[in-house]
Every structure is written in structure tokens, then in C-alpha cells.
């Protein structure tokens, strides 16, 4: 598969035109040094040779981790919910079961998706957990819009609470909550994925599949039995 694309670019600071090399495919199993560059947001940065200013130039990019068995395609601003991989081309098509194939159209979500999968989470169970936590949070803090995953310090899952599109304070949850959700989700038929298309894994997926309510029902039944709650 084609890994880089060269094109002319005009610097917005000094109007100098220079050639930039865009990465359109990143395989971190074959090229491990690139992982940190992606996570740190450096992969789309280019330095103007004339004025030395750094500019961010986003481009569509496929991120692939063969070992951890996931692929995330960053397709800028696409409204698509699914993107079919041309089977048999460029070595695609032999994924087997439980290969996460994801589609993202927002740069921050692209990096977040990689972090979630790179940490070793089943991102479907992760999304269920995220929205269960968000629902609970919104009862006390209705202005909270989203939770953005930052990392896993000391057995916790750390989110940043997004209010009016801006990152505010942190929210930590016990990783056990995710484990519980994953155990429930594993029994659902949706946990067996068809693996020939890159798909979005987001709030709409939870709504379309009705998964959130199904998990909640099991949670409620269990907590009535055990006197515990979320
Ligand atoms: Zn310049």
C-alpha cells in the first residue's frame, strides 16, 4: 500500500511554496517509531523551510497495528458511517474475527480511538461504559456534553469532561466498571463483528443497536439482586 504522498504546499505565514510529504498509511508494527508521533499529534505537522513555522496539514490516513489487531481510518470530515475495504487489494481482506476496523472523521477522535485500542480496550465495551458514565454524570452536571479519554493512571480510566466544546476537569472511573460492561457485552451477538468494513463506534451506534438499554437492564437487575448500583 502507498504510504506517503508528496504535494506542493503554500505556507500560510510567508507564502513560500514547498513540497510536503503526507503519510497516508501508517503501520506501527512495521514502523514502531511512528506510534508516538501519531499519539503526540506530530504526524501531520510540517515545518516551512523558509520561515521555520510549523503548520498542521491534515490528510486522510490509515493507522494499522497488526499485533494489536486494529485499523483506524481517518477520513477528514466524512459523513460516512462505514467504509468498505477493497478485499484482496493491498494486503487487505484477511483479518479473521475480532479485528477492530474503525472510521473517524475528526482528528481528536482519531487519536483518541487509537489510544483506546492501543491501551487494549475492546472499544465497543469502552463506548458503552463511556455513555453509561456520561448519563450518570449528566444527572448531576447537565452541562457535560462529552467525555474524552485521556489515559489509565493506576487502575483508573481518566476522562476529560467536555463542556461547550471545551475540556474542563477530569473524571476518573474504576476500570472494573469497564470490565463488568465487557463481560455483559461479550454475551451479545454484536460482539461478533463482521470484519470487512471500517465502521464508526460512537453514540449513534449505541442508539442504533439499542445496546445501552440492554446493558442497563442487566446492570439494574444485578444491582437489585446485590444491592449495588453503578
Ligand atoms: Zn513559511
Shape: globular
What's the main sheet like? 4 strands, mixed
- Record the strand order, biggest sheet: 3-6-7-9
First-residue to last-residue Cα separation: 46 Å
Bound molecules: zinc ion
**Strand-pairing-aware structural class:** alpha+beta
How helical, in percent, are the residues? 25-40%
**Overall tally of domains:** 1
Q: Which sequence of SSEs, written as H and E, runs from N to C?
A: EEEHEEEEEEHHEEEHEHH
Rounded to the nearest angstrom, the radius of gyration is: 20 Å
Percentage of residues in DSSP E strands: 25-35%
Overall pLDDT: 90
Number of helices: 6
Number of strands: 13
Q: Which consecutive residue ranges, at least 5 long each, have pLDDT under 50?
A: none
In a few lines, what is going on in this structure?
By secondary structure, the chain is α+β, with helices and mostly antiparallel strands. It is 31% helix and 30% strand. Bound molecules: zinc ion.
Summarize the helices and strands and which ones pair or pack.
Blueprint: E1 4-10, E2 17-23, E3 25-27, H1 33-39, E4 45-47, E5 54-56, E6 61-65, E7 70-74, E8 82-84, E9 100-104, H2 107-119, H3 123-140, E10 144-151, E11 156-163, E12 166-174, H4 175-185, E13 197-199, H5 203-209, H6 211-226
Parallel strand pairs: 3-6, 7-9
Antiparallel strand pairs: 1-2, 4-5, 6-7, 8-13, 10-11, 11-12
Helix pairs in contact: 3-4
This protein binds zinc ion (ZN).
Structure, explained:
α3 packs across α4. The protein is 31% helix and 30% strand. It has a four-stranded mixed β-sheet with strand order 3-6-7-9, with helices on one face. A hairpin with a 2-residue loop joins β11 and β12. By secondary structure, it is an alpha+beta fold. The protein has six helices and 13 strands. It has one domain. Zinc ion (ZN) binds next to loops. The site of zinc ion has 8 residues, from loops.
Amino acid at each position: 500500500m502507498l504510504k506517503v504522498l508528496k504535494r506542493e504546499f503554500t505556507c500560510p505565514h510567508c507564502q513560500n511554496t514547498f513540497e510536503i510529504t503526507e503519510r497516508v498509511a501508517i503501520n506501527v508494527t512495521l514502523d514502531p517509531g511512528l506510534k508516538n508521533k501519531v499519539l503526540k499529534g506530530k504526524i501531520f505537522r510540517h515545518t516551512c523551510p523558509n520561515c521555520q513555522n510549523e503548520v498542521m496539514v491534515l490528510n486522510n490516513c490509515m493507522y494499522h497495528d497488526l499485533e494489536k489487531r486494529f485499523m483506524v481510518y481517518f477520513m477528514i470530515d466524512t459523513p460516512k458511517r462505514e467504509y468498505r475495504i477493497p478485499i484482496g487489494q493491498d494486503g487487505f481482506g484477511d483479518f479473521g474475527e475480532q479485528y477492530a476496523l474503525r472510521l473517524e472523521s475528526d482528528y481528536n477522535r482519531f487519536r483518541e480511538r487509537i489510544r483506546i485500542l492501543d491501551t487494549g480496550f475492546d472499544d465497543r465495551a469502552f463506548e458503552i461504559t463511556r455513555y453509561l458514565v456520561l448519563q450518570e454524570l449528566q444527572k448531576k452536571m447537565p452541562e457535560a456534553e462529552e467525555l474524552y479519554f485521556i489515559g489509565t493512571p493506576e487502575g483508573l480510566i481518566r476522562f476529560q469532561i467536555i463542556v461547550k466544546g471545551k475540556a474542563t476537569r477530569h473524571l476518573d472511573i474504576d476500570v472494573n466498571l469497564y470490565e463488568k460492561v465487557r463481560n455483559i457485552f461479550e454475551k451479545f451477538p454484536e460482539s461478533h463483528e463482521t470484519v470487512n468494513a471500517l465502521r464508526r463506534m460512537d453514540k449513534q451506534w449505541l442508539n442504533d443497536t439499542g445496546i445501552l438499554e440492554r446493558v442497563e437492564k442487566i446492570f439494574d437487575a444485578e444491582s437489585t439482586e446485590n444491592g449495588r448500583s453503578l
